[in-house]
Amino acid sequence: MTVAAMQGTHDRLTGPRAGIGVALAILLAAGPGLADVPALTVATEPAQSQQAYQSRRVFVGRIEALRQSDLGFELGGRLEQVIVDDGDRVDAGAVLAVLDTARLEARRAELTAALQQVRADLGLARATLARTEEAAGFNGVSGQELDEARERFNALQAAERLAKSRVATVQVDIDKSTLRAPYAAVVIRRFADEGQVLGAGQPVLGLQEDGPLEIRVGVTGRGLDGLRRGPRREIEVDDRLLMTEVRALLPVRGAGTRTVDVVLGLDDEDSGLRPGDLVNLALPVEVKQPGFWLPISALTEGVRGLWAVYIAEPLDPGSQAESESAGTHRLARRTVDVLHEESDRVFVQGLLRDGDQVVVDGTQRIVPGMVVRLGVRRTAANNDQG
After folding, report:
1. Does domain 3-52+290-374 have CATH number 2.40.420.20?
2. Strands 260-266 and 240-253, sheet pairing
3. Contact by Cβ (8 Å): 338, 292
4. End-to-end CA distance of the chain
5. Distances from the Cα of 66 to the Cα of 180, 184, 236, 269, 273, angstroms
6. Gap between the Cα atoms of 313 and 158, Å rounded
7. pTM, to two decimals
């Protein structure tokens, strides 16, 4: 039962049945001289103070792909074909679009022919140089003729290298006229159509990586406590526990929001989340506030709508040992403030001390001043105080 649900329970307890409890309390408080009624047995738990409690703060985050790119050609030209469309999944290296390369291919053919001519001339110069060097060994040619043969051979070697580089440059431009996927992705947008003349770098297609996702969320204040790069951990995302990893804590705060962007990697590819989704992210926060963890069943509504708990005190504060041996205690009501609520327990502040025996069950059957016996006592371990 939640704290809110208990409000209605209190209303039902303030009717005629409450009068029966008051009458019973009077008879029990009067002692055996007025009524031989056995004392009610109640379950209690010793109060143990804590210096802090774990709460949650909810931040709104956005699901993003690890990589997203708007792709274009390095060269300008006429768009000849777009092979993919919105929503298509493509593998890394897949051809996405091509430019018209007719002029580049004609230029490549021209330069290739020139390269072949240079190679032919180079072959002839190599043979001429070999014959000249052989004749020079028998003083059949002059030194000038030998130098000229070597000079022509060296010049044609340089011409071959230049012609090869020109062919390679045109081939690079032809290769750059084919747009390929840099990674496995989904096509999320198409910016251009066939026949359009594009400038260098003008976007043609938008890609989004098809793979693991991440959450980007702006976190403020104590929400940053405990967030460190490193180990995987469970974080509550839209009421689901998902395995995440803190990948980055961006050091610059937003000028308007004063938040720090935190990037969390999602391990679960079957989470059902998609890039662009907004999610509520619950992060643990330690609140340094002294108080006591108590079962929610210990709460009862006090005066003026405040919350209260019942404390079982020895009948005679000066003779606690005697009261313990007799097994009877008198109930007192203490007002408390509920600072935090979890599924079955609450963190409270109020007029409590370490060791106070707090009634944890059946508070609807008791009233202040009633004499009771203590039943099986719970301990901090039984209640998972943590």
Report:
1. yes
2. antiparallel
3. no
4. 20
5. 19, 12, 21, 12, 14
6. 107
7. 0.58
Pair type for strands 178-180 and 278-287: unpaired
Tokens of 125: 């110069």
- Name the residue among 165, 198, 181 with its Cα closest to residue 75: 198
Closest CA to 121 of 150, 151, 160: 160
The three-class DSSP label of residue 241 is strand
* Mean pLDDT, rounded, of the chain: 82
User: Can you read off the two tokens belonging to residue 154?
Assistant: 């060296």
Q: CB under 8 Å to 3, separation ≥6 — which residues? A: 296, 299, 307, 338, 341, 346
Q: Based on the number of CB atoms within 10 Å of its own CB, is 258 exposed (0-12), middle (13-18) or buried (19 or more)?
A: exposed
Half-sphere exposure (Cβ direction) of 54: Cα atoms closer than 13 Å: 8
Other Cβ atoms less than 10 A from the Cβ of 373: the count is: 14
| pLDDT tops 90 at residue 171 | yes
Q: Which two tokens stand for residue 104?
A: 């580049």
Q: How far is CA 175 from the centre of its chain?
A: 40
* H helix or E strand, kind and range, residue 348: strand 345-350
Q: Where are the alpha helices (DSSP H) in 176-235?
A: none
Give the other-Cβ count within 10 Å of 144's Cβ.
Answer: 8
Query: What is the per-residue pLDDT across 124-155, written as a single tens digit (0 to 9) for each?
Result: 999 999 998 888 877 778 888 889 999 999 99
The answer to whether residues 365 and 23 touch, using CB atoms and an 8 Å cutoff, is no
pLDDT (tens digit per residue) in 211-231: 888 888 887 766 666 566 666
- Domain segments of the chain as ranges: 3-52+290-374, 56-66+211-286
Q: What are phi and psi of 7, to 5 degrees?
A: -60, -45
CATH pick for 56-66+211-286 out of 1.10.10.10, 2.60.40.1730, 3.40.309.10, 2.40.30.170: 2.40.30.170
The single residue listed with the structure tokens 């947008």 is: 189
